[in-house]
Amino acid sequence: MSALDVWLSRSIPMCLLLQSLVLMALCFPPASMCPKGCSCLRTDAHLHLHGLNVTCSRSRLKEIPRDLPAETVLLRLDHNHISAIPERAFAGLRLLRELNLSGNALETLGEGAFAGLEGALQLLDLSHNRISSVHKDAFSRLNARIVVEDNPWHCDCALQQALGGMAAHNHEATSTRVLCRSSELRDQDGQPYMAVDADLCNLAKRTTDYAMLVTMFGWFAMVISYVVYYVRQNQEDARRHLEYLKSLPSKPKRPDDPEDITTVV
Ligand SMILES: *[C@@H]1O[C@H](CO)[C@@H](O)[C@H](O)[C@H]1NC(C)=O
Ligand SMILES: *[C@@H]1O[C@H](CO)[C@@H](O)[C@H](O)[C@H]1NC(C)=O
């Protein structure tokens, strides 16, 4: 056997093996694929975080990837163009510990935006977005520290309820960082939320009560004026009727009136 024969006999099976491996990799992707625009790494064992570190920062994402691996423990979606969080968008990520949504275009947070993250989530970064309003239950049952800086918050009843629904230590930490871009109370614009010591929910209730009162008063005034008008009109009619009656020539009584006859009888 020549040296060439030996080389060929060894390299051909090797080539075939490599080729089949490549084909297998192409045809059978691993069970948890990494979403487009993201990188997925196993977390270091020494971090006590067992799962995937998924980084999708600065990937021009317009929405949250749908195919996030279930083993994700760290998820960075910062500096994208995400403008909304669909209901239950993260519901499959039971192990998620940190979620970074900083530097996106979020405007509002719905009731179920973070549903499913109640158990594990410890850190939620929502800073540098355009969030002005949140559903009153958006943060309920979350135990995470929530970063809220640099959002144009509208301080209203729903926000008060959302912050009030958080665990006490988080409530304090989060509330101090909410700056009211606008507020139910006009003179509170630009104030930190914590400085607004009014009960914004009762305020709203009082406003509706007041509106109700004004409306009722309006109706009442209309009814009264109608009644007055009606009575006046009737008086006028009655007076005219009387005058008309008076103006009629009075009938002279005749002795042969049946009534008189009966009285005589
Ligand atoms: C996660 O991955 C990113 C980049 O892919 C890296 O910068 C970061 O340090 C990683 N974090 C951890 C906790 O492994
Ligand atoms: C989220 O990402 C931003 C931008 O990369 C970073 O500055 C920030 O520290 C991260 N947030 C947390 C809580 O780690």
UniProtKB/TrEMBL annotation:
Residues 1-27 form the signal peptide. Keywords: Cell membrane, Disulfide bond, Ion channel, Ion transport, Leucine-rich repeat, Membrane, Repeat, Signal, Transmembrane, Transmembrane helix, Transport. The keyword Heme does not apply. GO terms for cellular component: voltage-gated potassium channel complex. The chain crosses the membrane at residues 210-231. PROSITE patterns: LRR. It is found in: Cell membrane. Residues 33-74 form the LRRNT domain. It is a single-pass membrane protein. GO terms for molecular function: potassium channel activator activity; transmembrane transporter binding; voltage-gated potassium channel activity. Its main location: membrane. The keyword Secreted does not apply. InterPro entries: KCNMA1_auxiliary (IPR051432), Leu-rich_rpt (IPR001611), Leu-rich_rpt_typical-subtyp (IPR003591), LRR_dom_sf (IPR032675), LRRNT (IPR000372). Belongs to the LRRC3 family. This is LRRNT domain-containing protein. It comes from Alosa alosa (allis shad). The lineage of its organism: Eukaryota, Metazoa, Chordata, Craniata, Vertebrata.
